[in-house]
Write a structure and sequence with these properties.
The chain is an alpha+beta fold. The protein has 7 helices and 14 strands. The chain has a 7-stranded mixed beta sheet, with helices on both faces. A 5-stranded mixed beta sheet has the order 11-10-12-14-13, sandwiched between helices. It has a two-stranded antiparallel ribbon with strand order 1-2. Bound molecules: 1,6-di-O-phosphono-alpha-D-fructofuranose (AFP).
């Protein structure tokens, strides 16, 4: 626990000082602070930038927005600048991005530069998602992550981060620095809210029964279409479940294991929750390639266990 200096409330502790006083490795602190720096430029791009298409498509054949490409470039540049990166991979780029500057190569980073970017033109919250591993291998299971974070660009700009010692929230202040808001966020009790991704008509019987049981137990539907704001709601409301399940026409669901699911699963587990593909812990999945997708049920332990039970029953 970080102590506050005389005359300073605990809440004026900025990100770098918090990580330093929590004895987080210097190079890891550097990466997290470089993402914080990148977010300043991304906010400006969101607020004033070109909302149009970039005229290019990513490796999945999806049309890229100018904001996707710009956010990706901003983050790549900041991470290169850190001097501690061995390898990086972006949801917007095909393959591993080579590090072309001098580096001690201690860490590797996978990131989704602007998840939910298609929501910016309808003025909804979006986010940056980051997953960090020690060493140069990005194709390993999520349980080996040493840190994960997301930056949420909403009415406020916040960062939620874990380096394996609890989950903490920071908010951007007037001078665009992140100050501590709350430490050791914990998910408690039954799911208060649920966020169901994908077309309901393509839900399998088990998932449909799971959603119905949530409704019958008074769990409220809260879905924005943005993974980062939806997970943030589950976390900050201290209880809920997000799902983008296997669908009748896409057994792997939609979301990406490396860039979206592993970092969020790391954060949610650090908050005492769980994340599953319906059968297996997300963090135990061994990735076969960078673009791999997986179904997901993530949130309070009870809700995820219930989802797994319904999925098991549908298969028996
Ligand atoms: P975009 O980046 O294409 O906006 O997709 C956002 C996202 O990856 C994730 O943030 C959402 O949870 C999910 O897709 C929304 O998917 P549906 O639009 O199929 O519900």
């Amino acid at each position: 626990m970080v102590s506050a200096e005389r005359g300073q409330t605990k809440f004026q502790i900025n990100l770098r000082r918090y990580l330093r006083e929590s004895d987080v490795d210097r190079d890891l602190t550097r990466i997290i602070c470089e993402i914080a720096n990148a977010s300043k430029y991304i906010i400006n791009a969101i607020r004033t930038g070109d909302l149009g298409v970039a005229g290019t498509s990513n490796l999945y054949g999806e049309q890229q927005l100018a904001l996707d490409v710009l956010s990706d470039r901003i983050i790549q540049k900041r991470l290169m600048h850190s001097g501690v990166i061995a390898n990086m991979a972006s949801e917007e780029i095909d393959g591993i991005i080579p590090v072309t500057v001098p580096t001690n190569g201690r860490y590797s980073v996978a990131f989704d530069p602007l998840d939910g970017s298609s929501l910016v033109d309808v003025n909804l919250a979006v986010g940056t998602i980051v997953s960090i591993y020690e060493g140069d291998n990005l194709l390993q299971s999520g349980r080996n992550q040493v840190a994960a974070l997301y930056v949420l660009y909403g009415p406020r700009t916040t960062m939620v981060v874990s380096t394996g010692n609890g989950v903490h929230e920071f908010a951007m202040n007037l001078i665009m620095e992140f100050d501590l808001v709350q430490e050791n966020i914990k998910l408690e009790g039954p799911a208060k809210i649920y966020a169901p991704g994908g077309l309901r008509s393509k839900y399998t019987e088990g998932t449909e029964k799971f959603v119905r049981s949530l409704e019958e137990s008074g769990t409220k539907l809260r879905y924005s279409g943005g993974f980062v704001p939806d997970i943030n709601q589950v976390l900050i409301k201290r209880g809920g479940v997000f799902m983008y399940p296997h669908l009748t026409d896409s057994p792997e669901g939609k979301l990406r294991l490396l860039y979206e699911l592993n970092p969020m699963a790391f954060l949610i587990e650090q908050a005492g929750g769980a994340a599953s593909n319906g059968k297996q812990r997300i963090l135990d999945i061994d990735p076969e390639n960078l673009a791999q997708r997986a179904p997901v049920f993530i949130g309070t332990k009870e809700a995820v266990a219930l989802a797994e039970q319904f999925i098991r029953e549908e298969e028996s």
